[in-house]
Amino acid sequence: xxxxxxxxxxxxxxxxxxxxxxxxxxxxxxxxxxxxxxxxxxxxxxxxxxxxxxxxxxxxxxxxxxxxxxxxxxxxxxxxxxxxxxxxxxxxxxxxxxxxxxxxxxxxxxxxxxxxxxxxxxxxxxxxxxxxxxxxxxxxxxxxxxxxxxxxxxxxxxxxxxxxxxxxxxxxxxxxxxxxxxxxxxxxxxxxxxxxxxxxxxxxxxxxxxxxxxxxxxxxxxxxxxxxxxxxxxxxxxxxxxxxxxxxxxxxxxxxxxxxxxxxxxxxxxxxxxxxxxxxxxxxxxxxxxxxxxxxxxxxxxxxxxxxxxxxxxxxxxxxxxxxxxxxxxxxxxxxxxxxxxxxxxxxxxxxxxxxxxxxxxxxxxxxxxxxxxxxxxxxxxxxxxxxxxxxxxxxxxxxxxxxxxxxxxxxxxxxxxxxxxxxxxxxxxxxxxxxxxxxxxxxxxxxxxxxxxxxxxxxxxxxxxxxxxxxxxxxxxxxxxxxxxxxxxxxxxxxxxxxxxxxxxxxxxxxxxxxxxxxxxxxxxxxxxxxxxxxxxxxxxxxxxxxxxxxxxxxxxxxx
Length: 561
What we know:
alpha/beta; 20 helices; 42% helix; 18% strand
């Protein structure tokens, strides 16, 4: 009872802090354009004596126009020489006067991931918005229905030691790490899986402890894929887990080292009554929402689940039933950029005090060098977002394209649309993730299949090249119906991007191909990436098969007759 009281107090404190942040946020939104410009000028003044600031004459930047004229667009390669000196030699005051306390590892390359410098101010912003602000929004939306007891959070924090005593890892993990002393009060998962020192069956461990918590009040993850994978694992393995709960054991088939197994066993005991209750629930099947049957007091789920994650959000709704979802934040390793201010909303309000934003209109006749500020944007238009963050990146092109869907007072509300480096173009047709997602969704409706996941592959090994849509479905499409299904997919893709239809007609492109992969292919890919060292907090859906590793993996697992 004491632990439950303290847990409630911990969440109450975070909610109160979040309420204060939200009150300040409302004031920012009323003057968002000027506040965002003031943030930039403050960063310029604070960093004019850095090596980068002297190189680009920060001391003589007095206006936004000066900034655009003196400071060029940048990519990670522009910062790499500085970062090498910072990481390997401990040099400071190169990019920012703010002390760098962490390096965020990107999820791109396993062998050579990018190291993004992170200041304490950036970590504080993540903590304030992604945690405190968010819990305040959730608490207000649920109007007392949230018990503020422990939740299931799939966050796993893996750090790489760097010279000088700093760590490298996901930025979301670093933000959670600041709460390490409170984690046992807030979440059910033990430290052995939150701070893993080895590869283990993490899904089992997360579930093993969450199922013991009858009063679990929420579940969450960085991305919806992890929650969906967890529930699928439960659906397949519930008997094994329940047997272990009954006996107070960990099945020998579970992949956990002996030392970790012994530590976990110290924290559990046989609970036959809980096992009996769970067995009764699971034996009724998973056709109806299982989460509210397991945890009647569970009030919400949270994860990034819009855009490319939407297919997993729909899968989670089958498990959640009417339990609402909070779609969290729009963020990258470089900055937290926007936040949901309502439950169930998939529209994100830009955060004016987190970074300075510039926007390049995505239009045929747009000047690629001309940028707009957030107070110059128009509803319904798409823009490439350019960041100046609080950790020393200036006019940084993160290659995200967002769409303005409205305004919150005087601040734009956005939705992520696609990444420029994930656009597929074989013969100049420029097919975006949004096009593929729409085509696949409409295909599934017409064919009557339930999607698990999908990707696109630009096949230039034949002439002329063609689009291959890779699909995993809950039930495989019968072999004798796949040609008809292929034709439907081509039709929908042609509607999504008429340029493809024109090029197929003129034989600039070959007809679209459809490739069905075996059951659990996408989940297996994510598991393999985690085994190779990528944090589960960073694994995004594979929308474009654009590397040899991905190509070999997915095409080796085709469901062939």
